Each structure stands twice: as structure tokens, then as C-alpha cells.
Automatic annotation (TrEMBL):
Region (Disordered): 141-187
Classification via InterPro entries: PACS1/2_C
Organism: Rousettus aegyptiacus (Egyptian fruit bat)
Residues covered by the Phosphofurin acidic cluster sorting protein 1/2 C-terminal domain: 1-339
Pfam family, one: Pacs-1
Protein name: Phosphofurin acidic cluster sorting protein 1
Amino acid sequence: MPRPVKVAALGGQTYLSSILRFFVKSLASKTSDWLGYMRFLIIPLGSHPVAKYLGSVDSRYSSNFLDSGWRDLFSRSEPPVSEQLDVVGRVMQYVNGAGVTHQLPVAEAMLTCRHKFPDEDSYQKFIPFIGVVKVGLVEDSPSATGDGDDSPVVSLTVPSTSPPSSSGLSRDAMATPPSSPSMSSALAVVGSPSSPYGDVIGLQVDYWLGHPGERRREGDKRDASSKNTLKSVFRSVQVSRLPHGGEAQLSGTMAMTVVTKEKNKKVPTIFLSKKPREKEVDSKSQVIEGISRLICSAKQQQTMLRVSIDGVEWSDIKFFQLAAQWPTHVKHFPVGLFSGSKAT
């Protein structure tokens, strides 16, 4: 087998998302052995959940790209007067030293979108992701938009050795939503810094657990094969496909973190002449692991969601589904590391 070609991806998580989408699309019509021909080198700029995970399993990667010097240099609005950091040296160390491949699982987000014209039916988009999906309050850097054809353009050309198959990835036209509860752990959050919902939004989240052994923390005994539902007023919903920090063992499921708004409680005062005052609103956080499939929709049908997938924002979403594994044979995204117990 030929040595993998190293492809450097220098940028934020939105740029990596664009590369991932073209990688999945380009290799959909290729045989499985093509998956071993490339190794992506992730050089992070700005907030980057995938890079943060990679640093947790490779200490040398962390010291190169996750230390305070690297973060400070690329978070400034003005370029430094003198280059105090050997950027080229660090990048070349990575290019020359990334000798192993870490396979990140590729998950699927299916978005059901409102059509621009009222008399038209809704349509679906299928988006691969490896990191985070969010709904609610998002405090990360501004997201790129992925609506229509305005998503970031990346050219990733794969030489053809055979005629393209009809199963080539035009995910808007191909693949159907999962018919059985089989989704995995991607990080998903719905929302944006300029969220139209205020600080909370009413959502219904239906999810299925992957395996009987993968249950919620603190001994949750609910049936893994049945649907579980959360219906509340949420500050945020976040689903992650990434393993826990420091864990090289890849999981086949997702983890979801939800932050709900606690109901106001009337607190009586000692003065009878005064009305009971309202207690300040508290937030409650909950982590649910081992999720194989997830469906999220707004409580009110007329409310459209804004969803951030690996940093790319998608708007006018009626509801969305997350599945832990991409349905084609392109199920992993090969990333180069210096070392790692699960690298190949």
C-alpha cells in the first residue's frame, strides 16, 4: 500500500467541516482502500473542539498547537510587531513527525429545512460531522453559514480510476433518514451568538441509547431499545461525537449535554403587605451518554431552529436528526498525529 499523502488543514473548525464534507463526497464513489491514501494534518486557528480532543491523546500535538503562545498569537486582531513564536517550525515538526493515523468517526446530521417559498414542501440536507452540534446559547466564535450554496468552498480532487458510481455523494439527493434507532456521538448544538430565541428555547429531544451497557451516568435503568424524551425549556443542547478527552478508544455512540431553565418559584416575604417575589432562575445541567440516535424539534411548529454543526451555522431548520455513523463506507476521517495508542 502506498504511503498516505499528507493534507494540511490550517484554519478553524468551519474550514475543517468544509474539508470533511468534500472528503466524504469525493470518496463515496471510490473503493474502501482509497480511505488509506490520505492523512489530514489539523493545524487549528481559533476555537477548535477537534484539535482540543487530539491534544488530549497526543501530548506533542498539544504542546505544538494548544499552548497559550499559539492561542494568543492567532486570537489577536492585529499582527504582532515581531514573531515571537516559530510558527513555521511548529508546522514543519507536525508535517514531518505525524507518522500515525488516528481515525475519527464520521457521524450524520439530517436537517429538515423550510423552503424559501411558502407553497413548496420542506427539503432535507445531509451533513457529515466529527465534532460538535449545538442548539441554544452558543458562546464560540462567529459561525460560518452553510445555507444553500453559500457554504465555504473547498476543492479536494481525488483522481478517478473508475467511472463514478451512481451512489456518489450528493447527500441532498441521496440517502434516507435512519429508519431504526442507530445514531452516534457527534457534538451538536442548536443556536448562535445572535440567537432569536432570547436566552432559552422550548425543545423536544427524543433519543435512543446505543447498547444496554452504555447507559446514562449514575445507574440509569431505562430500556436502551425504547425512545426516551426530554421536553423542556432549554438554554442549550449539545451533542458530541468525540470521545472523552484523553480517551483514544473510539465510541460508537454520542454524548449529549443539556442545560435547562428551572421554573421560577414564588418566595414569600416576611412582610404581608408585599407580594411574593420571584426567585432568580437557576440552570440545571445534565449529561446523557451512549446515545445512538437523536431527534430534536421545537415545541412550537412555527419556530425554526438555527443549528451549528462543527462551527457551520444552518438556519430555517424545522427539526433535525443525528446518527452516530455516516451511512456509506466512508465512516472515518483519517487524522495524522505524532503518537496515539489507537493510531494506525
